[in-house]
């Protein structure tokens, strides 16, 4: 009887040790999985949700996340207004889900900031551009590799070359 109790106790200890090892492995795999999730993947999973995007350290773009790509976020700030926010300008986001969306289709994955800005240029839409600490209003005339040309429409005749590096948001509507 004594031997059987000893063996039963040893088996219970081994089972508990195996369970602890499995739990540790699961926790490590979960941490590794979370470490591979990109902000763009979380944003894609959050499409349709209300979000707040902190841009430039002080401005907040708030509304429904309409679309997201690796380089930009599109937020509906009202029924007719949209804000295109470069991911590099987003200091912080509130309202994202914790999980990731599946990888985007090949075409969507290649849609960079320049592609979205060229669509606005084609539409000849009047936009408000927030770059660094400046607010400019005009039409996007051209989009280069790292900048856009914005022709002012408020009575001035200037055309601003705005670098993507300083771009905080482009608002329409």
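^ structure tokens above, recovered residues below v
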């Amino acid at each position: 009887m004594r031997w059987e109790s000893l063996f039963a106790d040893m088996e219970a200890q081994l089972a508990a040790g195996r369970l602890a090892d499995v739990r540790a492995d699961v926790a490590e795999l979960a941490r590794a999985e979370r470490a591979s999730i990109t902000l763009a993947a979380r944003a894609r999973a959050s499409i349709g949700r209300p979000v707040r995007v902190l841009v430039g350290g002080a401005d907040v773009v708030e509304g429904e996340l309409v679309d997201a790509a690796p380089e930009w976020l599109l937020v509906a700030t009202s029924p007719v207004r949209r804000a295109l926010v470069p991911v590099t300008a987003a200091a912080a986001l509130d309202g994202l889900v914790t999980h990731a969306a599946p990888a985007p289709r090949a075409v969507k994955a290649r849609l960079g900031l320049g592609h979205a800005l060229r669509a606005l240029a084609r539409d000849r839409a009047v936009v408000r551009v927030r770059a660094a600490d400046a607010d400019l209003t005009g039409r996007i005339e051209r989009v280069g590799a790292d900048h856009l040309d914005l022709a002012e429409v408020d009575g001035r005749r200037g055309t601003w070359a705005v670098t993507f590096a300083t771009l905080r948001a482009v608002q329409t509507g």
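Helices lie at 2-35, 39-45, 106-109, 113-123.
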